[in-house]
Write a structure and sequence with these properties.
This protein has helices spanning 11-18, 55-72, 85-93, 109-116, 138-143, 156-162, 184-191, 203-216, 229-233, 246-253, 276-279, 281-289, 294-306, 311-321, 323-327; strands at 22-25, 30-33, 47-51, 76-80, 98-102, 120-137, 171-175, 195-199, 221-226, 236-238, 265-273. The protein is of the alpha/beta class and 331 residues long. It has 2 domains: 11-130 and 266-327, D-Maltodextrin-Binding Protein, domain 2, CATH 3.40.190.10; 131-253, D-Maltodextrin-Binding Protein, domain 2 (3-Layer(aba) Sandwich). The longest helix is centred in the first third of the chain and has 18 residues, at 55-72.
Length: 331
């Protein structure tokens, strides 16, 4: 997802999963972090996985890469890259092999063209169902039950409740990373809500802000998504917006000025380079079968996001505990 992506979360954790210093990916022109390439015995091509800058993506890739290396004998490389057109260009030309968490609501027309021309292959559902939306902590709903729906946000009283020094007489809507797929400013404008989007800049910054506000039960309304550890830890409640429709969703993906509805549920899917099937048919078959559900992600996310465990270690623990599951993926 792009993340409408969007989910779920720390860039520092993702960087730890990649195990390398930041470097510029010459193929994509974006900032990337490359892990040390594992070098198992045998003369096999390196399989390059894309990690997007959220923790669930890093965990999915860590599980897959460890199994590909240890069971199929391929060296692996992990590249951290924003979910954008450069990622699809890398998949199309074979520089990148696989991305394991794409949120369909974030696919633009330009990105869809890569699937349509066959250069990037949709490898089917990951197994997890994502949902981007507007979230508030449960204590906000306990104090102001009307805030559970967008109609309750229409008043000046609601704006004052969420206002900060940055927003004056408007309520602050806390955005995350502005590169994520999001159209909250358009929703606010088209619904006539007295709010202003203020971006934190990153997931870690959003989580830090949420943690500080939750400690004193200060109100906050924010762009977020599930499944993420933060939803459980902070009791986040998904605010009800006008019902999603395909027409409205298309407007959102195209950044159309008319968008005024909720984000859809996202059946997350995997994508690979069309060249992967010839390059490594057993890896292609493995990734086709590879499945990570909401329950799997929610099992791994709290140790990584809340307890601060290394993503690679969390993935290894999951692999050790679910041998019967992943053995069925091996071709």
């Amino acid at each position: 997802m792009k993340r409408l992506l969007i989910l779920l979360a720390a860039l520092a954790l993702v960087a730890a999963a990649c195990g390398g210093d930041d470097a510029t990916d010459d193929t994509s022109g974006t900032t990337a972090a490359a892990s040390d390439t594992t070098a198992p015995s045998g003369d096999k091509d390196t399989i390059t996985f894309v990690v997007n800058p959220w923790t669930a993506s890093a965990l999915n890739v860590a599980v897959a890469a460890q199994i590909v290396t240890e069971q199929l004998g391929y060296p692996t490389e992990v590249i951290t890259i924003d979910e954008n057109e450069a990622m699809f260009t890398g998949l199309a030309d074979g520089t990148l092999d696989a991305v394991l968490e794409i949120w369909p609501s974030g696919i633009t027309d330009t990105e869809q063209a890569f699937f349509d021309d066959g250069s990037v292959e949709n490898l089917g559902g990951l197994g997890a169902i994502g949902k981007i939306g507007w979230f508030v902590p449960q204590y906000v709903i306990d104090e102001r039950p009307e805030m559970a729906t967008w109609e309750g946000l229409m008043t000046q009283e609601a704006a004052d409740y969420f206002a900060t020094a940055d927003t004056g007489d408007k309520g602050r809507f806390l955005g995350t990373d502005p590169s994520y797929s999001q159209y909250d400013g358009l929703i606010i404008e088209n619904l006539g809500l007295p709010f202003e989007v203020i971006f934190s800049g990153s997931e870690p910054a959003t989580v830090a802000e949420l943690d500080a506000r939750a400690a004193t039960k200060d109100p906050v309304i924010m762009y977020w998504w599930t499944p993420t550890a933060a939803v459980g830890k902070y009791g986040l409640v998904n605010v009800k917006l006008p019902e999603f429709t395909p027409e409205c969703g298309a407007s959102g993906a195209a950044a159309d000025a008319d968008v005024a509805c909720d984000y859809p549920e996202d059946p997350i899917f995997k994508a690979v380079s069309a060249k992967l099937k010839d390059k490594a048919p057993d890896v292609h078959a493995f990734l086709s079968a590879f499945t990570i559900t909401n329950a799997d992600q929610l099992e791994m996310l709290p140790p990584a996001e809340i307890d601060g465990e290394d993503v690679e270690d969390v993935a290894a623990d999951w692999i050790a505990a679910h041998e019967d599951t992943w053995k069925a993926w091996i071709p």
